[in-house]
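[Discussion] Sanity-checking designs against the backbone

I'm trying to build intuition for which residues belong where. Below is a structure token string of 281 positions. I'd appreciate it if someone posts a full sequence so I can compare it with mine line by line.
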């Protein structure tokens, strides 16, 4: 037993207190009383480690060679069986506790992420509100374009703002679910017209087959514009202020999910525009 105790961290100093006239039971009772008082539950861990080792015992050489070996072995196996049952029960409790703690941790992280997301979305909403006085101006249009790509970046979309290369304007784009979308933004005071849709449609069709386009107009679209963008297999999706304000900035849906929902609708119906009230339909 001394070897077993040393294997589980019981010091020689502690074992030296085991008097010759003291039985194993008395010494163990005294040892365990001392262990359970150790700080940070370290003593409890030692006792649990011993119990787990005992629960795995298959042979008992110290019990061989006695007149009542058969009875001793049977009692030992029964004791080990009871210890193993308790250890299994304890392990299940530990697993359940860990699982509950993990669920709580994930819930806290999700809540913290939601709070951070709302705070960041609130910041983006404030920035957009500050741009409203510039709506309809060239400077406002450029500022809204930069704002939209910041919104895409917030949702970790692979986005590339428009830029000039060799004197040539390169269209902005973003990638989602293996599809590349050309992006065009409108920050005018009037609705986007059919002529604007025609111009953007030509840009899309000049690109690769897996390219689509998203036209974002904060003043909405005229009826003819929506009709012009809509057709079987349309490569164009239309978003207006209600998608931006009522869904994305309100935290109701992410920008990627809004794009996916409009694309799904366009694929099923050929309609490039899906009003917010019809999103649940």
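Best answer:
Here's mine. Compare freely.
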């Amino acid at each position: 037993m001394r070897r077993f105790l040393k294997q589980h961290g019981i010091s020689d100093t502690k074992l030296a207190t085991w008097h010759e006239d003291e039985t194993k039971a008395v010494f163990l009772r005294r040892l365990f009383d001392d262990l359970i008082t150790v700080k940070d539950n370290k003593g409890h861990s030692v006792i649990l480690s011993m119990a787990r080792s005992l629960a795995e015992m298959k042979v008992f050489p110290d019990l061989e060679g006695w007149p009542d070996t058969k009875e001793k072995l049977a009692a030992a196996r029964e004791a080990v069986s009871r210890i193993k049952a308790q250890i299994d029960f304890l392990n299940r409790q530990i697993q359940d506790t860990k699982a509950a703690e993990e669920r709580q941790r994930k819930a806290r992280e999700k809540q913290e992420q939601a709070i951070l997301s709302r705070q960041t979305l609130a910041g983006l909403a404030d920035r957009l509100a500050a741009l409203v006085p510039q709506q309809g101006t060239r400077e406002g249009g450029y500022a809204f374009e930069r704002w939209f790509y910041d919104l895409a970046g917030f949702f970790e979309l692979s986005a590339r703002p428009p830029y000039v290369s060799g004197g040539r304007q390169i269209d902005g784009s973003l990638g989602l679910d293996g599809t590349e979308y050309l992006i065009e933004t409108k920050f005018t005071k009037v609705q986007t017209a059919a002529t604007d849709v025609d111009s953007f449609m030509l840009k899309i069709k000049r690109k690769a087959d897996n390219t689509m386009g998203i036209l974002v107009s904060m003043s909405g679209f005229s009826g003819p514009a929506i009709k012009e963008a809509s057709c079987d297999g349309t490569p164009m999706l239309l978003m207006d202020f209600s998608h931006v304000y009522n869904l994305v900035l309100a935290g109701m849906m992410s920008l990627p999910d809004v794009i996916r929902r409009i694309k799904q609708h366009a694929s099923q119906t050929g309609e490039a525009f899906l009003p917010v009230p019809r999103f649940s339909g």
